[in-house]
């Protein structure tokens, strides 16, 4: 079943059950100063859950575009994490609660495909519930699920709150057993790759106070209006229904991966079996490329442009990681003009605006690649030399001033220096780098002040001198002026 069809069925199922279909919010989380990007379906509904605004509907359904940058290190290595993904969700604002949420999720998951559902084999579905949530436990039992497949888990896994006083509650997750070739038997607590989490149901039923952390708080009472918030990973259910090993192989992602493999002459997936953990590094890189190119498309599509701070910096890092992975696989030419149109063709059936807007999106993307290739050309030789010198000197850490010089003179981002150094088995003296960055900021501030007043503010230089002592000017003796 194609991803676009899964999305359609999800919306149709809940619409038929009285839910209002609400479009996805754009990826930048403008309404929340603590969040760069929307990371769950419920984010656009937070004011309703907190009772700050009255919901214009009692129940809603959406397919929300999400970005989770904290998952970036998992991408390509696990079978189930993307930096961009889509979250199918159904929501109740003081309307139905646990019993209906469980029944609606179960029905859609197990109704046969020919009758509009996803047709999952009930024997392969496991559920987790919060330790003392007997109600949820018993509701899953009414579906016929045996007690052995209902696992009780603690606060870290199965409790939801915003980490602030307000609504909170237990959650219950659905897992699909992909079978013995994916890992050890025993349920989600044993192997989260074999048992793939695909749906999380949050039951907002309590009010909490004295919140020290997400797992340390006091329940002060029941909420007058109990809410439901669920999230089903669209790519995860697609990977199950399409019978592929991971979410980089579904219809919306695989063509990008295939194109990258073609260009670089790599054969994807010949090195390993289904368990993603055994993957060959080339395969991991191809998955990273496919994921990151799609994420870049979606971010630029929603108005983000590459820059050195905030949302633009996240985008820049993701784009540059994809471009560099292509180079590591041997592709020396521009990569995005080859890959981005493929991503557009994958995603525009669900998001036609991407095709309509592609001139704008691709110009921004291709310009960023040009800038980055210039940076790479200038910085790589210098970094390679510094790495060789560090190794020759028998040290395991690249000096902070080298990292700083690369950043300051060549615009070589520190995370790239870190990544390349790590690949070469070195760490980077991050403290030294940070100290130089702080000095530079102080200097810039002093210069700005001097420009305003006409007088240099020497106090900043004083602070640098106090912290580090005087420097000897050795350039004439030590610099190789011939090569300049
Ligand atoms: P995991 O434990 O696998 O990291 P999670 O518990 O962090 O997932 P939730 O916060 O419960 O995920 O989000 C709801 C649903 O969204 C998950 O059940 C999953 O289907 C999907 N999901 C979460 N993170 C990702 C991701 N990085 N890529 C794709 N789908 C995701
Ligand atoms: Mg997670
Ligand atoms: Mg989880
Ligand atoms: Mg979860």
TrEMBL record:
It is found in: Cytoplasm. It catalyses: tRNA(Ala) + L-alanine + ATP = L-alanyl-tRNA(Ala) + AMP + diphosphate. Its main location: cytoplasm. Residues 1-484 form the Alanyl-transfer RNA synthetases family profile domain. Its EC number is 6.1.1.7. Binds 1 zinc ion per subunit. Its cofactor is Zn(2+). GO terms for cellular component: cytosol. GO terms for molecular function: alanine-tRNA ligase activity; aminoacyl-tRNA deacylase activity; ATP binding; tRNA binding; zinc ion binding. GO terms for biological process: alanyl-tRNA aminoacylation. Keywords: Aminoacyl-tRNA synthetase, ATP-binding, Coiled coil, Cytoplasm, Ligase, Metal-binding, Nucleotide-binding, Protein biosynthesis, RNA-binding, tRNA-binding, Zinc. Catalyzes the attachment of alanine to tRNA(Ala) in a two-step reaction: alanine is first activated by ATP to form Ala-AMP and then transferred to the acceptor end of tRNA(Ala). Also edits incorrectly charged Ser-tRNA(Ala) and Gly-tRNA(Ala) via its editing domain. Consists of three domains; the N-terminal catalytic domain, the editing domain and the C-terminal C-Ala domain. The editing domain removes incorrectly charged amino acids, while the C-Ala domain, along with tRNA(Ala), serves as a bridge to cooperatively bring together the editing and aminoacylation centers thus stimulating deacylation of misacylated tRNAs. Belongs to the class-II aminoacyl-tRNA synthetase family. This is Alanine--tRNA ligase. The gene is alaS.
């Amino acid at each position: 079943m194609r991803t676009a069809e899964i999305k359609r069925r999800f919306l149709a199922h809940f619409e038929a059950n009285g839910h209002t279909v609400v479009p996805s919010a754009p990826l930048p989380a403008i309404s929340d100063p603590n969040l760069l990007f929307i990371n769950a379906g419920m984010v656009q509904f937070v004011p309703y859950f907190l009772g700050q605004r009255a919901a214009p509907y009692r129940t809603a359904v959406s397919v929300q575009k999400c970005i989770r940058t904290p998952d970036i290190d998992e991408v390509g290595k696990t079978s189930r994490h993307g930096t961009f993904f889509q979250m199918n969700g159904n929501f109740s604002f003081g309307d139905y609660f646990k019993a209906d949420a469980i029944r609606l999720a179960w029905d859609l998951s197990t109704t046969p495909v020919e009758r509009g559902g996803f047709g999952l084999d009930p024997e392969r579905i496991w559920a987790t519930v919060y330790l003392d949530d007997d109600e949820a436990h018993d509701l899953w039992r009414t579906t016929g699920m045996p007690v052995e497949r209902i696992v009780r888990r603690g606060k870290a896994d199965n409790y939801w709150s915003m980490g602030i006083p307000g609504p909170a509650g237990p959650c219950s997750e659905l897992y699909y057993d992909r079978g013995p070739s994916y890992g050890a038997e025993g349920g989600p607590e044993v192997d989260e790759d074999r048992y793939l989490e695909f749906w999380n149901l949050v039951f907002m039923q309590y009010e909490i106070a004295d919140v020290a952390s997400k797992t340390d708080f006091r329940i002060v009472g029941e909420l007058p209006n109990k809410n439901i918030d669920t999230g089903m990973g669209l790519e995860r259910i697609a990977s199950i229904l399409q019978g592929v090993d991971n979410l980089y192989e579904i219809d919306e992602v695989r063509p990008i991966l295939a194109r990258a493999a073609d260009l670089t002459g790599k054969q994807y997936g010949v090195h390993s079996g289904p368990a993603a953990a055994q993957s060959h590094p080339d395969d991991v890189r191809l998955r990273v490329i496919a994921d990151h190119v799609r994420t870049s498309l979606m971010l630029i599509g929603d108005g983000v442009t590459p820059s050195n701070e905030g949302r633009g910096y996240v985008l820049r890092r993701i784009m540059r990681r994809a471009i560099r992975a292509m180079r590591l696989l041997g592709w020396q030419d521009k990569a995005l003009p080859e890959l981005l149109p493929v991503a557009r063709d994958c995603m525009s059936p669900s998001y036609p605006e991407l095709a309509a807007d592609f001139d704008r999106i691709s110009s921004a993307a291709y310009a960023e690649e040009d800038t980055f290739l210039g940076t790479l050309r200038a910085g790589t030789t210098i970094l390679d030399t510094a790495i060789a010198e560090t190794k020759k000197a028998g040290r395991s850490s690249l000096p902070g001033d080298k990292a700083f010089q690369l950043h300051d003179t060549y615009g070589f981002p520190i995370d790239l220096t870190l990544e390349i150094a790590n690949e070469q088995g070195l760490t980077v003296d991050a403290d030294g780098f940070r100290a130089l960055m702080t000095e530079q900021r102080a200097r810039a501030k002093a210069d700005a002040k001097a420009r305003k007043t006409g007088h240099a503010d020497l106090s900043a230089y004083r602070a640098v001198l106090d912290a580090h002592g005087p420097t000897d000017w050795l350039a004439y003796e030590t610099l190789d002026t011939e090569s300049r």
